[in-house]
User: Fold these one by one.
Assistant:
Number 1:
Amino acid sequence: MSEFKTVGKSEIRIDVKGKATGRTEYAADLKMKGMLHAYLVRCFDHAHANITKLDMSEAAKEPGVVKVVGPKDVTDKIYNQSVIDVMVPPSQVEPLGDIEDQNIFAVDRVKHYGEAVCAIIATSEAAAEHAAKKVIVEYEPLPVYLNAEQASQEDAVQFDPRKPGNLAFELPEVMFPNKTMGWGDVDAAFAEADVIVEDDLYTSKQKQCQMEPNSYIALYDDEGRLNCWTSTQMPKCVHTKLADIFDLPMSRVKLIQTTVGGGFGARLGMVLEPHICALALAMPGHPIKVQSPREEDWLTSPSRHPGDWKVKLGFKKDGTPVAAQASFASYKGAYYLDGSGVAACAGAWLQAVYNWENLAYQGRTYFTNQPVCGAYRGYGNPQQTFVMESMIDRALAELDLDPVEWRKKWHKNVGDGTWFPGVKYSSVAIDPCLEQGSAAIGWKEKRAKYANQTGTKRRGVGVGMTTHTSGAFPMLLEHTVCSLKLNEDASANLTFACSDIGQGSHTALRQIAAEALDFPTDDISLNTSDGDITGFDIGAHASRTLYVGGGAVIEAVNDAKRQVFERAAKLLEANPEDLELKDKQVFVKGSPSKSVSLKDMLHKSVFNYDATAETGPNFAEGQIEGYSSYNPKHCSPPWAATFIEVEVDMETGEYELIEMVNTHDIGRSINPAIVEGQMEGGAQHGLGMALSEELYFDEDGKVLNNGFTDYKMLGPSDLPKMTNIIVEEPDPFGPYGAKSVGETGLCTPLGAVANAIFNASGVQVTDLPITPEKLLKAIKEKEAAEKAAA
Amino acid sequence: MSHHTINLTINGMPQTVTVEGNETLLEVLREKVDQTDVKYGCGTGECGACTVLVEDNKPINSCLTLAATMDGRSITTVAGLAKGHDLHPVQQAFVEDFAVQCGYCTPGMVLKSVALLSENPEPSEEEIRHYLEGNICRCTGYTKIVTAVQNASKNMVQYAGGDAA
């Protein structure tokens, strides 16, 4: 018998009936009276060029066109489409070197393929799109830089005068001496190491590919308010930024969060909100809608940061990890966004996993003529998991040590440092993950069985693991406001701005409220999308919604209960702290016979018929509303390990995923089916990054595969049989002991699949994605080297 | 541009619509008859979010179908499956088995599953995965969608069996 009423139960999600019937509306489905349609005109001729002429006059004459809007018709305020700057403490912005560098429409110069140059507003989408063809733009091409090496050439055209050498970011000296994150002396340690492995690796430009394309509506209304309907993950931070860009008080900007058709980081900030709002301001009184075509999503919303890694690891014969040295030079794309974030966080995750005696990480990012990079589920962690887990297994093969046993021995533990300096692990349950995962996949038997294969088809098993975070505190602000109104019939309304971007957080947060109130979940309704009503919330990022939102919900419930107990104490002639609320009865702990009905109390708190002019209000002191303005005290990192079995064809380089076991150190699972959904969904992204997902460019910087035809994600038949193992050892800080699950499960498949291929074939592919062509090349090279040696 | 007046039966309701020669069924359904439960996902027939059923069970990508070619046809969208609060067994299974996350692929995914079960009432897991290849989901990793189709299959077969008896 569970100690909980609803926590730990896979309650049916609140939102899914509307989604399954098609009744749920997304931004694209909204229609408004007098609505006009916008089309953004983009540069598809060049990835880097000066604009020498922009002539919109012919387009303006086309049928149905209401207005043409160019760079001079909108605010010239420079902004940064990411919202990280809202979260970073102001004292850190300057040392980090975070900048604003974007215009709504390109001014004088385009820096990537598909950059917006102007817009057409028309009576229909088709009319706007047709008129766009009449816009005349002339360009003077500039050299195109598509990686860190090209962009950092001495004579390269500069992207921004504040960032010499096109170096958008490197770890700042004031925070990281020698621009290095870590501890100890790696050079001295390498000199003493028995085994050293060293290589250059590449991690790819993966795209979130949320299923809902970007669509927005904005209206500058007759009250002088700018309304924006958007499926952003971060409604409050976007609200803050829109008010700033358009120089309006926040009270005159209303942000309505529409159903979010997936995010995965692509909507961690603004995409086309500045554009649609600028158009609304240019055309007051008319709702303006933009439906961005699918193929433009790869060009406008941020992707994962790709880039070049150098990794060197040193070990003693017994496996003691004496030194890790790594650098990541990523390709930023054309604008800064969260330039500091991923470059720094990749190192933060890297140093959080194992107890390296000495460690040195350097992170840099260079502007390139590519669509922008920003947040993507994992935020630097998938990259570091791939390179570190691959290189560790290379060393372990040389040392003849078991990868599972080595990981169990050398992972960090409670009391060791997490990803953020000075914060120690509050709970670590990776050992049971590794043990149960090993048992489930048959690790020992299979590693022994697959040790000396000679045939064409060879099997292998591999493991990959990492840790992550639950919210970004204390690096970033993590603040959530929540209110809980107790209705007069003892039902409740919960109000917060926490985003459900598809993961099911609203359902799980309601379960937390129900548990804390001891109410049936159906007696609690949610109010989340109306920006005028909801209080502040950072938004859905950093696996924080359940962890921080759950803390906020519990605190709001506790505030409501405190008020209930204070009032009931008078009726029960008891101390408020001795009271308990169960099944809507308030009673003295241990004496259930002495109780008052919550419903009676709450009814009277609203319908205070007893009060007269003479008596004044008696105990009915008004409707009770609990409130919290919550900041978490920790980041309770979760851990995860994934095991994968593959079969490699040594003659073709093709490989098949046979089986996958995902394990997760969750602390407490509030809704297990939702947790599994995060693990399974994360695995699809992680395996995709490992196997096939990458954005390709021609030498002129034109994107070659911005469409589902050529950007290959894994489909239902490509995925292996998946088993989920959820390990529950409650964390002391999380709501009911819960830690996060959103991102970790994306990262671990990268290490697991690479190591399974290594186990099967004896070779490693060091640049993602691991295509059969690359694997075959590596196999042939190894065979040639062996022949030469013999 | 040529105009065509066509007759469609949409979720059982006869409708007459004037369409342009180059208008897709997706555009007509969403813009002219307000059937916004049919989703635009890619416009190139790759993601299946715009799936509708023609003559009750043949799934097509409405984004690749010219509306003018559909004169006289009967079309089912996901909104045509449920009767008020009573869900179709496939919808019910999607709800109960957590096969829905962000929900944007769900209308197409549900209709494709309905089509599969009408062609093949008891598909194997492999057959389900193969049949759903044209429908992209980016949230679930497909596991729970496959489970939902299996459970819908069981429920529908049992129900049909019970009816016969």
Number 2:
Amino acid sequence: MAQVTFEEISASDFFYRNRDIAGFTNPTRAIFAAIRELVENSLDAAESLKIPPEIYVRLSFEGEASKETQIYKLRVEDNGCGVPPRHIPPAFGQVLYGSKYKLKQQRGTFGLGGKMAILYGQITTHQPATIISSTSPSSKIFMYKLMIDIQRNRPIILDRKVFLNKEGWRGTVVEFSLEGDYLRAMPKILEYFKQTAMVNPYANITFVDPKGRLYKFTRATTVMPDPPKETLPHPYGVDVELLQRLIQVTPYNNMLEFLKNHFHRVGEITARKFLEFSGISPSKNPKKLSHEEVVRLMHMLKKFKEFLPPDASCLSPLGEELLKTGVLKELKPEFVAVHQRKPATYAGHPFIVEVAIAYGGEIPQRGGFLIYRFANRIPLLYDEASDVSVKVINAMNWRRYKVSPDMPIAIVVHICSTKVPYKTVGKEFIADRPEVRREIANGLREVARQLQRFLTRREHVDKERKRLGVFGKYLPKIAQFSAKLAGKEKPPDIEKLLRSVRKFGAEGV
Amino acid sequence: MEPREYRSSIMERRKEVLASLENLGTRIYEQIERGYFPSIEMPSRSTENIYYDPNFRQFILGDKKVKRSARNIRHLKPFAQLVWTALFSYELTSQRKTSTLRDVYYSAQAYEMTFKDQQESNNIITDLETVLGFSREDFNIFPEERSAVFGDLTIRYTVPGYEGKTLNLTSHPDGVMIGPALTSADFVETSADKVIAIEKGGLFTRFIEENVHKKFNAILVLTAGQAPRATRHFIRRLNRELKLPVYIFTDGDPWGMHIAMVIISGSANAAHLRDLTTPDAKWSGVWATDIVNYKLPTDPLDEIDMKRLYELQKDPRYKEDPLWQREIKTFMKIKRKAEQEAFSRYGLTYIVDEYLPAKLEETK
């Protein structure tokens, strides 16, 4: 449906001219974005089969492009579901073609990233991309060499080969050349892998950089979160366009059935109540609604208070256990508290906030919290200051929890939603929605309380240890000095005193 | 003047000091042996426990006591520091070595007994003084010295290496520093019949040059500002043991007046100690009335000076002798002050030839 809307404008052309909005702003950002988009596609591909992802990324130096930029070859391999051969050319050679236009939580939202990366590679190097894929161990392996006809938004197939799949391989390999500045992008790329490993603790990720350095992020578990289910749109989240499309395709010829069958969490009773509320006859044929009536229907849908909130089965949060595993694995803190909020909604879109707070261990002390932001299990690395999480964190009264920014503390905020409220197409920060803000704040309060309990307990133990240390240090000295002063040979026995202090101390704890 | 008697007084005192230190050690040792947390009781030095005693004519501590117990975690470190200081003092005294306050601070580190700063170690020494009733000079711990004495007094050293040696205090024209050796020396003989204490070094030197010690038969003591405790104790000994009257000359301002007062009646800080005062000593000048009578060149009293005068006016020490209140009032009236050197306007020797004899006569 979506490509129909964009057909006449040539989506490729549009994004070619506006590549900034997709995150390909400059050679540094571009190389980071390319890796990120392909890795995310690979993670999705493996998760859709519920198998722990196995991802291999190699970036190799091809030659100098200009004074500041180089040509690199990027290769990303996964063990995911693969792409059926007939879909390979459009999936990799046609912008806005893809599997991501349904209502369930997925990493990408535009079906744009992977192709954008290939498009960018083609623009900068004029080289074709190579795609190799197999959808199951019993299937053959298909290889395509593609370029994109930018003006017509169509794939150009340069070469196609079919191999026997002797080793029973399944997955996808994408390889293409692109211009970039790896040295500048390196910190962000490595940070990206580390954070990706944190929220995908069940994935093995290997990265070989142009210098031949190997970065390996090994999975700490094979448990994976439940995959998201597809859902119908929730009445609060629809717009006129969506209503028109539903009316076009619906097989139902009365409003009651129309509402019951096309909307999330609308049953017989709710549908009747709503129709009464909005003064629409249950037997009215939806196809006969005038444009004005459709607009009114949308407003009434938003006004009606009795729709049940969307359920979260379409979401796939990480879960407290996995989040904890990920944080422990990548940050190695002394203490971690995690919390998953109950599902909530903003503008009819369900979302779940998960937060973690980690303290001490290998977390550096740097005069401010380390903040890790994630949306649908994607690390958000740019524009931290504009993000809603950061605003909430800054507005919190941390002193109430005995927490101060000069402590070694890392905070993780993960928002998953069918529609993450990004503020830009670059998908780098999350807009400040009151509903989202409230969920983050409540989540942080919960983990902050847990951290406070931990800190208080530790302070107690520390204090007690210190107290005993003071007695252990000074009592022997008092004994020794007084014996000398009194002209005695041996210091008096202080064991009894020390014992009583310990007993006394044990009660205090 | 029987030298032997003086000598034994110094020896006696050292024995007493050592015995009281030993006694403190034994008390603590036995408490621990019996399975108790050792504790020490001493008079409280807080301001509400400091009283002026008209009989002693000095500040004394009241009945309020404080208890240092090794059971209390907050007392534990100061307690250990106190016992260490006692041991250190014992070793100093018995080996007849002297030490400064600064030394104490550093020596402690060799015993892994750290003091946070000099102030902390000074406080612990004051605690020890309060517990035992001896002053730190008795434990051979001295502050940095700066005061001096000059005049016909023969002393006999008791410090190791000089034991029995004598010295006449006119032997050096700059005067002899009142340090540990002099403080622990016995008095042998003197021809002087008075002591003149002077606030400032310049005038002290002038008096020596002008033979004041001969002309007035005096022992000259330089206090160099507020007199250190060793000097106050020394002046007291001159007064008590040699029966010499003491005359004090300071600048004509509230601060000079108070220098004289501390020599006479002691300070609140030393309320836990005796033998530092000379109640019969006289403040001979420069008085406020002298400023008027001698038409001395003056400076105005500033705000801080005036504030100090109001404080002194209420101080019980200043209510003993009507002289004090009269002079305070005069200062307040004229709102002027004058230094000792102000007499130089009448020529360098005027102060010796005219002022000094007149004032000695007046305050006799």
Number 3:
Amino acid sequence: MDAVSSKGTTYTDQGRAVPAEWREGLENRVLAPLAKTTWRYFAWIGFLLAIIALAVVMYIRQLNNGLIETGMRDRISWGLYIISFVFFIGISHAGTLLSAILRVVKARWQLPITRMAEFITVVALMVGALFPLIDLGRVDRIWNIVQYGRWQSPLVWDLLAITTYLTGSALYLYLPLIPDFALCRDRLGSTTSAWKHTFFTIAAAGWKGTPGQRKALDRAMTIMMVVIIPVAVSVHTVVSWLFAMTLREPFNTTVFGAFFVAGAIFSGVAAIIILMAVLRKVLHLEEYITKNQFLALGIFLLAMSFVMIYFNLSEYVTTGYKMESGAPFHFHDLMIGYLAPFFWCYIIGVVAPIVIIAFPPTRTIKGIVTAAVFVLVAMWLERYIIVVGGFRVPLMPYDARAYAPTFTEWSIFAGAVALFLLLISIFVKFFPMVSVWEVVEHRGPEPDGSEAVHHPAAPRMEAPVAPEVA
Amino acid sequence: MKTRRLRLRIGASLVAAAVAALASVGGVSAAGTQQATLVVTAPATANLGDQVTVTAKLTSAAGALVKETVQFAIPTTFLNGSGDMVVAQAVTDGQGQASATFEARSTGALQLKGVFAGDNTYAPVTAAASSTMTVTGNQQLYVPDIGIALRGLNTTPTGQATGFAHWFLSGWPIGAVLTLIWSMYATAVYFMSRVVAEGERATEVQS
Amino acid sequence: MLHRVGESQSVNAMETGMSDPLNELVDDDGRTGPLDALTGAGQRRVKRRGVLRWLGAAAVAAPPLAFGGQTLFGKGLFSATPKAAATATVDGRLRRWAMVIDLRACDGCQSVNKPPQCTAACIEGHFAPQPMEWIQVFEQSLPGGGTRFEPAPCQQCQNPPCTNVCPVGATFSTPEGPVLIDQERCIGCRICMAACPYDRRFFNWGTSPQPAEAVQAMSGMAYNVEHQEPEFRGTVMKCDFCPDMARAGKIPYCADACPNHAIYYGDLEEDVATNGKSVIQVSSFLSDNSGFRLSEEYGTEPRVYYIPGSGEALGRNPMTKGRMPTVWPWKTTVSGSKTWTR
């Protein structure tokens, strides 16, 4: 894509017409947040910072007094922190799915939202990776993992996998940003501050849109999109092996790796839908992110719902049929006992997409977002019942212990969520949230089904050749 | 004359009562009074870890004792406990011979002894072997059992750290995968640098 | 003494005020007791602070040269000295410590009307902080009704799940058998506690409730991996088979204190064990009396064997349930400490 918007209609590589004024509109809309900031934004940032400040205060208190400030004890030695860890790492798989897998199969509908998806991945990984550190009893000795790290430990696998995934995702986020940074550099020179302009210039890496550059970028992106997929799969598999490598009854199963990856994709898609809906509203992107995206993601959520039901059936039917030692307690705990409220809300959340999305009357943007909210909450509950439910099963003849997160744990969790939102909010001000050049080159205006149309729908052109913009 | 016989009878019954009392204290239901002879033979030398055969011959004035249990023990002191450690037991055959086999686990001069617990007829007998058994050797016999050890997976490498190479190779599957992935990252970064280079080249061409 | 040789320790500067390669603290000479000669001439005396106080991010000691991350099997000092057959056999073979607990002679100390004495002796001997019971007497229901008591120390597995998962090798196997914890390396991630299938690992959640005597007993002593120190808040602790007692030629506190001599401590290498009163040959004792191990199906290969029973040698009726709860005898504990429920 050329740095300077050209006059006239361009065409996507599939021959769809992209009118110039549509493109101008897209660029203006996407770049608007980078140029102007309202007081409401600062109020929002201030609110998030307040929550984070509380979390920091509670964490310092935890450092002072030890982990006794939490609700964890010997018998339930992992709690809200590890639950949140698994939850955030799970969310991070959204980006890989949308950005990498769909790119590999050359789908086009997701192009307006790949940027948001990639951001969720990076931010969720950064926030998720904090939790094992928060959970450590001796975080001052964290260097020991590097110095004395053992290959054989699932925690070291976690460290390696998450570091690798974070690096890969950051790289994969940056590569498609280069042409958009060039757009910012060229279009926002006058309206933004000097340091912002310098930032865009450096970040654009000298992008001019030459064929040589395009080829190089294309090659780099191809490599990354292929390699990031197995990395993403391995990350949540390895996170599941924190539990599956133990001998405790509900953990001691071979299905955990696949189960967690499916759960990650499930929760990640839900997170994307929610974020997409919010940013679409706040940044006025209704014309470019339309019902098409929601529908496609909604159908995907529906499909993943069936996958999750399948995995849950696999797990519970096989275990419940045999009722090996530990299983009776666990089933009672889960379905009619201590964890029953969590479990049944989880089931409702997993089934919600089927009920909402399978039927046309509820298959609206609002309906799909509602289903996504159900799913996200359900997946958090699922992490809770996996971790707490697993630790509750008595290993020796003693009474099962209860667990309830304390105010310290809740405030740190709230702080992490606030940090997640804060990072996204900051990125909204510095990065274009829609991948402009990809939408222009490969997608074009949203086909029929868009809710806000400012221009007549471009007629299908037979012209097979996309003229190169000088 | 009559009193002497009476005294003898009283004396004998007293002795019998005493023996019965002693026997009940000793746990034998009704210990005999007759004396048996126990002869224990053990090899003079053995190697550590060998199966050692010891025999005992249990006889009495009336002949060999058949179907009696003889235990073989070694007086042992271990930490702050000491006593006779029973290492084997056997039942006497038709000739009153019992032989048992046990594995020699300790070195040094072991004083083997045989113990017959007695029965209704016979009193308990303990007899030491004619000579001490000298066991020599120093190879480690017991090896901890951890099933299948997959190097780099469920074991920690023995020995001391010998640097980066050893550390890396002990986890070679993970190391290999990581190397592969990070080299692909490096390739992508290389292509990214090509973007910059191409841009500069285009600028040169233009200017 | 079992510890790492050839590896520098990571020392928390806040606790000792100085960093010191572990090498210097090694004492290779024969010693007669646990406390003496660790502070002999030429060796660093590391001052123990009583209570660990936290003030945000603490300084991390400079990493030593070796980037290797190997856990080491302790180079047993046991074998270096021909001491009176206590810590090595006379001919220099390594001991392979094991325990046999005869449940026929265990009634949870019902007959002496006290809390289980094995647990009490362990707590007193090690100043185990409340509520840690490194040997814990569980009460298991029997199929026909009634209960039996199972004193469960750390099973010192030969295939220990805790050792497999530790990310820094803070818990490690020794050739002599006991699985030890290096409390100066432990980062407190607690994956070992998730992995232990016997519930035998305990975490110092807060400042540990230990008496002042514990602090005094430890002060002046060099750091020793065989001496677990409660003041390491945020690290894991457990039963360690009392390596010091063996070196002193005695059986562990729990075995010593059992009023019915139900706990045998022994060596699988020489196939011998004692409960302080009599000496048994372990292999035949186990075979003749149907010895078993806990949760054999896990494949952990524990070193603690049990002889099935429910106190019948003491005339116990299995239907008499219940034992007295464990007490920690400290009248006062270090300031800032409070107990927690497990």
